[in-house]
Design a protein that fits this description.
Domain Neurotransmitter-gated ion-channel ligand-binding: 17-173
CATH class: Mainly Beta
CATH architecture: Distorted Sandwich
Strand content: 25-35%
Number of domains: 1
Number of strands: 9
Helix content: under 10%
CATH topology: Acetylcholine Binding Protein, Chain: A
Organism: Potamilus streckersoni
InterPro entries: Neur_chan_lig-bd, Neur_chan_lig-bd_sf, Neur_channel
Order of helices and strands: HEEHEEEEEEE
Pfam families: Neur_chan_LBD
CATH superfamily: Neurotransmitter-gated ion-channel ligand-binding domain
Largest sheet: 7 strands, mixed
GO molecular function, one term: extracellular ligand-gated monoatomic ion channel activity
């Protein structure tokens, strides 16, 4: 495992270079949001605060090359190692920010959330837990039976759309892990 980690992190520029073999292409980063709690909804200030997980995935073309040259048994082609978990700072990851934040615009995730690299598939998965406070204007047209719709707008902050293309997997936020509220129906 130490040898695999050393091979993978030997290039000190690895965390800073978008993981594409051809830099004229753009990298697609997918985001799926899983809601765990509705912390606050404030009609007066026009904001919503939620706790959630973001499932962020992308293809890392360099992984396949590393896998084929370092992590397969030369005689049998069987995998020696197919997957590893790396510290946030050791591998490339997208700089994602909530664009419609009512607080300061800060980067999502930190060193607490590791990145899982799958060498066989050439994919990276990162699942940071987040507390998001977004702008959400109240529509009280049908009060007290009003229905509110709030959006969370994400951007790849440090990159142009020619470099990184964010793709939302589901237009609806997942609620399988949601802690139900007696006051609101989500």
């Amino acid at each position: 495992m130490d040898k695999a980690y050393a091979v993978f992190t030997a290039n000190s520029n690895y965390p800073f270079i978008i993981p594409l073999q051809d830099s004229t292409n753009s990298l697609t980063v997918t985001i799926d949001m899983e809601l765990t709690a509705l912390n606050n909804y404030d009609e007066i200030s026009g904001s919503i605060q939620v706790a959630a997980f973001l499932n962020v995935t992308w293809r890392d073309e360099r992984l396949l090359e590393l896998y084929n040259t370092n992590f397969k048994n030369a005689k049998t082609s069987a995998p020696i190692i197919s997957e590893m978990v790396f510290p946030y700072t050791a591998v490339w990851h997208p700089s994602i920010k909530l664009l419609n934040s009512v607080d300061t615009v800060i980067e999502i995730g930190d060193e607490a959330y590791k990145i899982r690299e799958n060498f066989e598939r050439g994919t990276a998965t990162w699942i940071p837990r987040v507390i998001l406070t977004a702008a959400c204007n109240a529509d009280v047209t049908y009060y007290p039976f009003d229905v509110q719709e709030c959006s969370f707008l994400f951007t790849a902050w440090d990159y142009s759309s020619d470099e990184i293309r964010l793709q939302i997997l589901n237009s609806k936020i997942g609620k399988q892990k949601f802690a139900t509220s007696l006051r609101m129906i989500i």
